[in-house]
Amino acid sequence: MNQRRKQRLFAVSSIIILVGAAITIMLVSLSDNVDAFYTPSEIVEGKDRNGEKPTIGQRLRIGGMVVPGSVSRDIHSLAVSFDLVDIGPAVTVQFQGILPDLFREGQGIVANGTLKNATLILAHEVLAKHDEEYMPPELAEKMKGVTHIPPAQGTY
Amino acid sequence: MWKWINSFAQPEKAYGACNFFMPFFVVVLLVCLPLGTVWGLVFAPTDYQQFDVYRIIYIHVPSSSLSLTAYMAMATAAFVGVVWQWRSAFTTMLALAPIGAVVCFISLFTGAVWGKPTWGTYWIWDARLTSQLILLFLYLGVIALYVSFDDKQQGAKASAIMAMVGIINIPIIKYSVEWWNTLHQPATISKLAKPSMPADMAIPLVIAMIGMAGYIGTVTLIRMKNELIKRDAHRPWVLQVLDAEQASGKPFIRPVWWAVAAVLFTIGAFFMVQQGVKFDSLAAFIDMGGRGFFVWLSFVVSFVALFILLVLSVLDRKTIISETRKQKTRVERIMRARAAKAAKKEAVANSS
């Protein structure tokens, strides 16, 4: 490799490495509060790291599993309330609107909303989170013992 | 070895290489893209959670995954162009940018359409979706930067720097689902791990991915040839090659390749049909378990976008070639006029 090529290689690599390092540092420092994400137990007991609890009225995002049997719907409107849990205590989420196809008891859910009191969240958006696994219904029934009804016939 | 590789820095050699590789990509495109799509839509089993709306995966995952691969290829070409100053490398980069942009758009669009029924929202600012959107802006930035320069060599250099710096976004997209709490689930198919889906679902997905790669390869070669002709329009090899292509009268892709494609497609279709149709009736197929709107919107928009890009690239070639020929006749006319003028002058000088 001749001298000029070496120089260009050096210049280009150093630009890429420098910008890369800058972005990495930014992302690492941001990663703690890239969004206000809490699990139900973090809302009740505070985050592991610093015991920080969300304040009443704070906008936050919560992710957890819908507690089976906790879903209660209002017959006259779209209002629904359900409990979310991870490994510790549960919190209640209230929501008014159409739930996604994948909303089921036992399903992982992400909700955006505001904290009304220590264990109650008023959500303006409820999103279903699913895993990366796909399988035919027959196989799922055999392996996981779940029978699911198609979304079009869903009760939610 | 290095000398041989370096010879492809010459535009005429690169043009020849494009012609050499073209049939392979065309065959892969023609066999795998329709096969993977039809297999995924009709012959793959439905999913236990999402049911038929999950079939969007057969266009979403190929386009998402290959929009990253295409970016890496583009950045590599930019790197070679800047460091070794290959004349042909920037043409590869410029050819890939619009293709990557379209594929990245398809990934975002199908993702949004899929997200609405399953997650409950078209868009959410989570790390995976945001970083993929940045990828689209990087592709558009590379194109815009090149177009905005009057001096095309300077423009190519500037967009090459942008393409190289943007490579940092690739690992961010790839690992965003592991580094942050994202709504987007981790990868279903990855090279290192066992796929999280049974073979009868995964095989059509892999075929569709290969087909998408074939599409990207084919269109890249078409656009790269256009770019090579455009940049070297004034150099003699261009018209020599174009004239030779015209004079030989051979079809662009030899019949043997069409035969290869037909045979491979038939073999693939044979295995596909053995899986059995997964719908009771045509109405059920169109309805897709009540989610037909989302599934068909994804596929129709994606294929229309892919088709438009392909047609534009082919039409581009026609325009560029006719421009080149026009330019040549213009130069010849000017030369003739000059010669005539000089002869006249000489005649006048002699007579006096």
Automatic annotation (TrEMBL), chain A:
Family: Belongs to the CcmE/CycJ family.
Transmembrane annotation, as ranges: 9-30
GO molecular function, one term: heme binding
GO biological process: cytochrome complex assembly; protein-heme linkage
Name of the protein in question: Cytochrome c-type biogenesis protein CcmE
Physiological role: Heme chaperone required for the biogenesis of c-type cytochromes. Transiently binds heme delivered by CcmC and transfers the heme to apo-cytochromes in a process facilitated by CcmF and CcmH.
Membrane topology annotation: Single-pass type II membrane protein
Protein's gene: ccmE
Subcellular compartments: Cell inner membrane; Cell membrane
Top-level taxonomic group: Bacteria
Pfam families on file: CcmE
A GO cellular-component term linked to this record: plasma membrane
PANTHER family, alphabetized: CYTOCHROME C-TYPE BIOGENESIS PROTEIN CCME HOMOLOG, MITOCHONDRIAL
Record-listed heme binding positions: H130, Y134
InterPro entries, per database record: CcmE, CcmE-like_sf, NA-bd_OB-fold
Organism: Glaciecola punicea ACAM 611
Alphabetized UniProt keyword annotations: Cell inner membrane, Cell membrane, Cytochrome c-type biogenesis, Heme, Iron, Membrane, Metal-binding, Signal-anchor, Transmembrane, Transmembrane helix
